[in-house]
């Protein structure tokens, strides 16, 4: 159903309201985004399971102990120490330090530990304990049939206990009003808050034996009303018609009838006016309770569903010149039904901001729902050129009516940074060792020329202790360059994580002022895929001397290889390997030029040259190799006659290439250049290559020398 406001907006601005009215927040907003997911995805695809103990609302792990009532009670007790005049305390999770009932007499019973323990499962660098307590209060009301409390994010957790401030049931009306005033509430608001808080659950004899004497109820609890698992106005209607069960109104401890004193303090005017407006009044006053925070805290806007929200975006380097862009689009179907959607596509810009193309995202992955919202997730997986990459996109939705709606993220587009990228396919998470630790190895791809260090920070959660809160240890971990491709350098870092902490552990990558943050370990394989910049190890049999230049670092080293031996010094321009991931320059007098090379085990195009005695253009030549044989193809200048396994190969003429010749390990061949006579002989003696010094293991990158 559309609200009156929504119907008015729809009539005024037609279909375009979708992308304009419901786009107050610009994505991404990290703190907002995490709480929005937890709040809205309660079942189906993408379910975050935060609402699990509240569905159904009658769920009680221990008979007589309402989970929903406990969630709401803990939020109020946490906020109750607020002093708005001084700007201190409020909803800040200081309740986690206030569980010593000899000091904080009001914080007794299992609800406190149970609530804190549950919400701590969702604690992270983007979801504070205080935000989670606020979310728990929202969820308890909504799951039990109550109104949706306007919820904001951005609370900051306390680091120590606050000031005791929960009113005592024995306080007289003046003291009660004084306590509520300290919290920023008028006498009327104090009545409203109690009336809204005392509809779920009840009072337990184990905690308040004078209010509910032991043995007087079957479960040791006296409910506030006859519908203790439903958020409704029964607590007021029963009070007004004198059938109330509320022990704080009619309990045997007359001095503890605090609800009676409050409700009757204005002649029942406030509670009478609330009967017909219970939900709307409670929505407002409970929001005020949740928004009472220290003066130093700034909260976000009220959380509402994004019309369109990207999820799990990833850029993976699949080869030197190709990126795979994958992820999902979460589409809000409250206003535009799934059945009315014909197709989705991402219209994206390249890294310079120029229009670059469109990516289909019409595959429905599944449907997710919340208390008041519904979504369909649409997936995509597309290759884009590494050279031009991507910087942002908008989402175009084609409807079955024939119209198209564009979601442009408040005119900013949905940003995609490609400076530093976590590479899950090439990262790994080992099984737990004997000590219960799992070793994570993270690979990051970084654009060459990015200034500053490449950093990885592990966010390790320290579990909640007794009378304490969970915390996050930020552990900086050095990243080491392991290899390079044409458009990205690859860095690696490893760290250990207790197996019990893997689910909650996140890491952040940073370089050049750009970040790839809040990355998890779940889903990493024990065996990573091979890096797209080569790899391998081997032993040494023959040598060639080279001068190595890694863009800004100069060094000299000796290169040796067991796969081939050469009859002369090999001149190469821009070649590299896994163990020595530096671009290396070589010079000599050989008369053949090779423009680009690659191999199966090192599938990155590498530019290299041999100086020629003639200025005549020389054809590009390419090669591919396997563990047992090497094959190559010449470029535009020649044809390649094949003369058997150990045959010779020559290039001449200008016929387009159509043939490929292979020489297995142990074979040999010679080739001559069309520029001027020159011969190189190669002998295969093994399956791998190694080297020493800066250039190091040449692997397949040196295997491509068989081109010459």
Automatic annotation (TrEMBL):
SUPFAM superfamilies: Heme-dependent peroxidases (SSF48113). The chain crosses the membrane at residues 688-707. InterPro entries: Ccp1-like, Haem_peroxidase, Haem_peroxidase_sf, Peroxidase_I. Its EC number is 1.11.1.-. Residues 128-204 form the Plant heme peroxidase family profile domain. One of its GO terms (biological process) is response to reactive oxygen species. GO terms for molecular function: heme binding; metal ion binding; peroxidase activity. Gene3D superfamilies: 1.10.520.10, Peroxidase, domain 2. Destroys radicals which are normally produced within the cells and which are toxic to biological systems. PANTHER family: HEME PEROXIDASE (PTHR31356:SF53), THYLAKOID LUMENAL 29 KDA PROTEIN, CHLOROPLASTIC-RELATED (PTHR31356). Belongs to the peroxidase family. Cytochrome c peroxidase subfamily. This is Peroxidase.
């Amino acid at each position: 159903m559309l609200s009156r406001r929504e119907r008015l907006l729809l009539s005024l601005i037609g279909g375009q309201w979708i992308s304009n009215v419901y786009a107050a927040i610009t994505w991404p907003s990290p703190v907002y985004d995490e709480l929005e997911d937890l709040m809205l995805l309660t079942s189906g695809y993408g379910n975050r399971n935060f609402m699990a103990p509240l569905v159904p609302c009658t769920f009680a792990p221990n008979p007589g102990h309402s989970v929903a009532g406990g969630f709401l009670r803990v939020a109020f007790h946490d906020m109750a120490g607020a002093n708005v005049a001084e700007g201190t305390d409020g909803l800040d999770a200081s309740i986690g330090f206030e569980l010593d009932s000899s000091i904080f007499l009001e914080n007794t019973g299992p609800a406190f530990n149970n609530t804190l323990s549950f919400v701590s499962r969702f604690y992270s660098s983007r979801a504070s304990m205080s935000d989670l307590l606020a979310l728990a209060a929202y969820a308890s009301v909504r799951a039990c049939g109550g109104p949706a409390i306007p919820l904001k994010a951005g609370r900051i957790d306390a680091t120590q206990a606050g000031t005791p401030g929960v009113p005592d049931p024995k306080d007289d009306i003046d003291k009660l009003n004084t306590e509520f005033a300290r919290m920023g509430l008028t006498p009327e608001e104090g009545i409203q808050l109690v009336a809204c808080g005392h509809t779920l659950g009840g009072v337990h004899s184990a905690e308040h034996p004078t209010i509910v004497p032991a043995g007087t109820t079957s479960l040791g609890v006296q409910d506030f009303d006859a519908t203790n698992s439903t958020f409704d106005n029964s607590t007021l209607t029963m009070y007004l018609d004198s059938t109330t069960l509320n022990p704080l109104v009619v309990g045997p401890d007359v001095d503890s009838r605090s609800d009676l004193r409050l409700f009757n303090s204005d002649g029942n005017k406030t509670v009478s006016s609330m009967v017909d407006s219970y939900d709307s009044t409670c929505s407002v006053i409970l929001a005020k309770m949740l928004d009472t925070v220290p003066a130093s805290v700034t909260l976000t806007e009220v959380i509402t569903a994004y019309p369109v929200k990207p999820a799990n975006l990833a850029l993976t380097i699949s080869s030197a010149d190709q990126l795979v862009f994958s992820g999902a689009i979460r589409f809000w179907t409250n206003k535009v039904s799934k059945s009315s959607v014909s197709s989705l596509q991402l219209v994206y810009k390249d890294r310079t901001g120029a229009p670059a193309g469109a990516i289909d995202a019409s595959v429905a992955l599944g449907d997710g729902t919340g208390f008041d919202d519904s979504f369909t997730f649409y997936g995509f997986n597309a290759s884009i050129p590494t050279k031009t990459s991507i910087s942002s996109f908008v989402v175009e939705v084609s409807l079955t009516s024939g119209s198209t709606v564009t979601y442009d993220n408040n005119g900013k587009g949905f940003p995609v940074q490609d400076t530093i990228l976590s590479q899950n396919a090439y990262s790994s998470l080992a099984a737990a060792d004997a000590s219960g630790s799992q070793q994570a190895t993270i690979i990051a791809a970084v654009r060459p020329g990015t200034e500053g260090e490449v950093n990885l920070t592990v966010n390790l959660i320290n579990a909640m202790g007794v009378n304490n809160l969970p915390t996050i240890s930020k552990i900086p971990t050095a990243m080491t360059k392991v290899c390079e491709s044409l458009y990205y350098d690859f860095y690696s870092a490893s760290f250990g994580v207790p197996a019990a902490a893997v689910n909650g552990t996140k890491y952040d990558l940073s370089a050049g002022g750009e970040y790839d943050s809040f990355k998890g370990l779940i889903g990493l394989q024990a065996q990573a895929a091979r890096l797209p910049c080569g790899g391998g190890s081997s032993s040494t049999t023959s040598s060639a001397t080279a001068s190595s230049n890694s863009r800004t670092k100069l060094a000299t080293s000796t290169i040796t290889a067991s796969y081939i031996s050469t009859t002369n010094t090999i001149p190469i321009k821009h070649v590299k390997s896994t163990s020595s991931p530096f671009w290396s320059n070589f010079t000599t007098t050989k008369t053949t030029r090779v423009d680009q090379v690659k191999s199966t085990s090192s599938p990155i195009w590498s530019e290299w040259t041999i100086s020629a005695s003639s200025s005549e253009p020389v054809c590009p030549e390419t090669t591919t190799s396997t563990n047992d044989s090497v094959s190559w193809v010449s470029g535009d200048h020649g044809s390649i006659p094949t003369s058997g396994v150990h045959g010779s190969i020559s290039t001449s003429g200008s016929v387009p290439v159509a043939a490929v010749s292979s020489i297995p390990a142990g074979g040999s061949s010679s080739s001559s250049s069309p520029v001027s006579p020159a011969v190189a002989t190669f002998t295969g003696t093994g399956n791998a290559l190694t080297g020493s010094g800066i250039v190091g293991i040449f692997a397949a990158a040196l295997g491509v020398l068989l081109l010459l």
